[in-house]
């Protein structure tokens, strides 16, 4: 199911800044014919349109608003690759009084948002030959850090859903990619305290399209991610990516 991005149509959620903007620009650099900039506020994509012209098409997507996602799928009927980059992070450990409410918020965006995207766009990808669905997970999907434990829990859940989507969408020819960045130099990363040693968002964008080109499920883009990915590799290959027979005891 590997393919190059040249002449393909891509949709990126959270495309107006940070990792999402880097993904949009890398897609265009690799020859994508069009990129839908899926953002909560259409005006936030104005600079991207000025820079890239009609190769960038803003479309409203709010991962907490199922109607906006369904409407976007109706607009982007020609899409070949959907990159669900948008997400939220709050610095919250599990013992804080509002940790449950924080987790509910992060789950709604990071997990239920992914499911809403997949449900809306899987039929579109199928009708266009399969394509790819890419989910921005995190090293926090496989390792919990206590000071943002709720975020880690939501990203662990989104990783689990991504694994399920890999198997569910295989039959229709859709490649699913799970991306696991470490600390990245973005506003979200800065808010979480990752200012020193944070990697460039371009590493994430490059890893995504390399994974699509090479038919890889996991992508570990930056130095910290690569270190964790190397340690995780055996389990990923022999358990997560293996075709294991389901059994009921």
From TrEMBL:
The family database entries (Pfam families) matched by this protein are listed as:
adh_short (PF00106)
Species, as recorded: Rhodopirellula baltica (strain DSM 10527 / NCIMB 13988 / SH1)
Q: Would I find Oxidoreductase among this entry's keywords?
A: yes
Q: Which InterPro entries does the record associate with it? A: NAD(P)-bd_dom_sf, Sc_DH/Rdtase_CS, SDR_fam
Which keywords describe this protein according to UniProt?
Oxidoreductase
What this protein is called in its record is: Uncharacterized protein
Q: Name one GO molecular function term.
A: oxidoreductase activity
Is Isomerase among this UniProt entry's keywords? no
SUPFAM superfamilies per record: NAD(P)-binding Rossmann-fold domains
> Known CDD domains for this protein?
SDR_c7
- State the similarity comment: Belongs to the short-chain dehydrogenases/reductases (SDR) family.
């Amino acid at each position: 199911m590997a393919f190059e991005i040249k002449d393909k149509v891509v949709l990126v959620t959270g495309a107006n800044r940070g990792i999402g903007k880097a993904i949009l620009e890398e897609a265009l650099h690799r020859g994508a014919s069009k990129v839908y900039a899926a953002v909560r506020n259409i005006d936030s994509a104005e600079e991207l349109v000025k820079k890239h012209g009609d190769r960038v098409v803003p479309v409203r997507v709010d991962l907490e608003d199922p109607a906006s996602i369904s409407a976007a799928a109706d607009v982007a009927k020609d899409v070949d690759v959907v990159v669900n980059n948008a997400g939220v992070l709050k610095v919250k450990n599990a013992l804080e009084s509002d940790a449950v409410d924080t987790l509910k918020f992060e789950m709604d965006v990071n997990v239920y948002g992914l499911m809403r995207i997949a449900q809306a766009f899987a039929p579109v990808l199928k009708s266009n030959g399969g394509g790819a669905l890419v989910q921005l997970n995190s090293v926090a999907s496989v390792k919990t850090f206590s000071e943002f434990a709720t975020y880690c829990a939501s990203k662990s859940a989104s990783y689990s859903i991504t694994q399920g989507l890999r198997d569910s969408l295989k039959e229709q020819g859709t490649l699913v990619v799970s991306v696991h960045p470490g600390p990245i130099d973005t506003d979200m990363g800065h808010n979480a305290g990752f200012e020193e040693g944070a990697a460039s968002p371009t590493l994430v964008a490059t890893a995504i399209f390399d994974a699509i080109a090479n038919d890889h499920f996991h992508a570990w883009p930056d130095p910290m991610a690569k270190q964790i990915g190397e340690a995780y590799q055996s389990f990923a290959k022999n358990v997560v990516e293996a075709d294991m027979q389901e059994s009921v005891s």
